Amino acid sequence: MSEVMEKIKQAKVEYKSEVKPTWCPGCGDYGVLAAFIRALGEMKIPTHKLSIVSGIGCSSRFPHFVRGYNLHTVHGRALPVALGVKIANPEIEVFVVGGDGDGFAIGGGHIPHVARRNPDMVYIILDNAIYGLTKGQVSPTSTLTMTTTTTPYGAIEPPINPVMLLLAYGATFVARGFSSNTKQLTQLIIEATRHKGFAAIHVISPCPTFNMEITFDFVREKVVEIPPEHDPTNKLKAFELAMAQDKIYTGIFYREERPTFESNLEKIISKFDGAIDEAVKKERLEKLFDQFA
Ligand SMILES: Cc1ncc(C[n+]2csc(CCOP(=O)(O)OP(=O)(O)O)c2C)c(N)n1
Ligand code: SF4
């Protein structure tokens, strides 16, 4: 067995849970899971320091398949829960995983605020441009005129552009991958995890059961890696790549260094610590707890 295969085998033993994925045969999400397991194997993150938080959807079943202190929460609310995990224990490597519906429809209001806070976590969006779990309704990334169960005469809204939104919201690391390119996606997950701040990866992960437009072949025809000469600190250029109509660029669009939410919070807490006497703090806390006793 080659060294690479041996590493992959080892990563599976270490990080794959006993729960077998219930995704349809051929679902793009399998490729994302494979890349994620490989990335964990490369980074050797101990499972007691790992937390994967998801919302609801086919893609949001992800945390069940990986060993860690994981949370399968409610539709659209994975990001605020993940922020809570990070605040409670900044030592934990927090990953948020979910679909385009979970992230950009019901949960769309959370992304800008988490992005500008810049917590040190990774957000992986598995975009199949449809609601998979609920059997094929239109999503914010479904193409204009797409026929779905809720748009029988074709969608009349143009799709949103997740990469452009993430850039505009101030995410400090923005990348895109394709579920079929496991090698590149593994590397993107590693880079995103090493980044200190809010790192978002938009992954095109086709749903062969309900989306007959954004198929693997359709994506393969359009996918191009971002040229190596691209300067990822150039936000305007990143927008330009994200706006491409005839191509789907993959790779790292943008990265910047900015203080994290945890480090800013730490500064506030240290000011607060000195300002109030421990006894007063305890008394106030006890009064607060008494209200819920
Ligand atoms: C509050 C709430 N509203 C609606 C639903 C129904 N629901 C479950 S998953 C889902 C959308 C799933 O699409 P997406 O997030 O893109 O994930 P996918 O299944 O495609 O991976 C919806 C609308 C729900 N579970 N909870
Ligand atoms: S319905 Fe689509 S997204 Fe859900 S598991 Fe099946 S192929 Fe994957």
Series of secondary-structure elements, N-terminal to C-terminal: HHEEHEHHEHEHEHEHEHH
Low-confidence stretches: none
**Mean pLDDT over the full residue set:** 96
Spatial order of the strands forming the largest sheet:
2-1-3-4-6-5-8-7
CATH topology of the largest domain: Rossmann fold
Question: What portion of residues belong to β-strands?
Answer: 15-25%
What's the β-strand tally?
8
CATH superfamily (homologous) name of the largest domain: Thiamin diphosphate (ThDP)-binding fold, Pyr/PP domains
Q: Based on the structure, what is the oligomeric state of the protein chains? A: single chain
How large is the count of helical segments?
Answer: 11
Percent range for helical residues?
Answer: 40-55%
CATH architecture of the largest domain: 3-Layer(aba) Sandwich
The CATH C-level name of the largest domain is: Alpha Beta
Q: Biggest sheet: strands, sense, closure? A: 8 strands, mixed
Cα-atom radius of gyration? 20 Å
Number of domain modules: 2
- Can you tell me the overall shape? globular
Tell me what you see in this structure.
- This protein is an alpha/beta fold and 293 residues long.
- It has two domains: 256 residues, Thiamin diphosphate (ThDP)-binding fold, Pyr/PP domains (Rossmann fold, 3-Layer(aba) Sandwich), CATH 3.40.50.970; 34 residues, no CATH class.
- It is 41% helix and 15% strand.
- The chain starts with a helix and ends with a helix.
- It binds thiamine diphosphate and iron/sulfur cluster.
- The site of thiamine diphosphate has 19 residues, from strand 3 and helix 4.
- The site of iron/sulfur cluster has 11 residues, from loops.
- Its cofactor is [4Fe-4S] cluster; thiamine diphosphate; Mg(2+).
- This is 2-oxoglutarate ferredoxin oxidoreductase subunit beta.
- It comes from Kryptobacter tengchongensis.
- Keywords: Iron, Iron-sulfur, Magnesium, Metal-binding, Oxidoreductase, Thiamine pyrophosphate.
